[in-house]
Amino acid sequence: MGSKSTNAVLGAYTYLEFGLTVLGYLPIMALSSLRHRGDPTQRIPGRWMRRLGRTAGTLTPLWKLKVEGERPSDIDHRGYVVVSNHESTLDPFLLSFLPWDMRWVAKEELFKPPVVGWAMRWGGDIPLRRGAGDSIRQMLDECERAIRGGISVMMFPEGTRSRTGDLLPFKDGAFKLAIKTGAPILPIAITGTRAMMPKGARWFGETKACAKILPPISTEGMTDDDLKTLREQARNAIRDALPDLRERYGDPTPAPDTRAPAPESV
Asked: DSSP of 217-250, one letter per residue?
């Protein structure tokens, strides 16, 4: 059997096992969501959502997913603002292997389809309608409620996927939230996820992907005047970690990053 035929068979298998995994978890997630409604941390529903991601990511032979780096010792007891570069719609499968509880911010469109959208809503994730001021405020309010309840939130500060692997400018929202709540920033550098579903491909791709936990960045004593410095410190940490990570996992390093800083918006 040729490589294209093999990839098609494995891709079809991956679609099937993902669908069956979601359907298998949905009843439990629905009950968990109902039982824990009103909990600002959504800790238990979120654990079911990440179990779903880890199960689906482990069952396919196409993906080898790994986490590197040191887990913060206090992350079970206080909220962090976790930020990562964003290379693929399938980044959450890899990031589900991070060993702590989080609520995730995701674009509102992902919550609308049946089945997958139900899983995201019942998993306690936080929707965001990009470009809509009322939705942004609601998202930030819910993130603040979660952090003050003692759980971390996960955000992609680029705001959208990088099509080329170049690190896009970071937006301000995650860093405003961290300064307001006093939560540390926890940067994560990821590589290999673009190959999980190559642009224009019909099938899932074969890849080795890794999420590397980088040292936390304290926001103690910071004010809004420090926002740009904090934002660029987090971006530089991820940017500097990517070349070595990509080289070790066989992900081609993109052209040098020459993009301008982000505007002051979410």
From this structure: B--TT--GGGHHHHHHHHHHHHHHHHHHHHHHTT
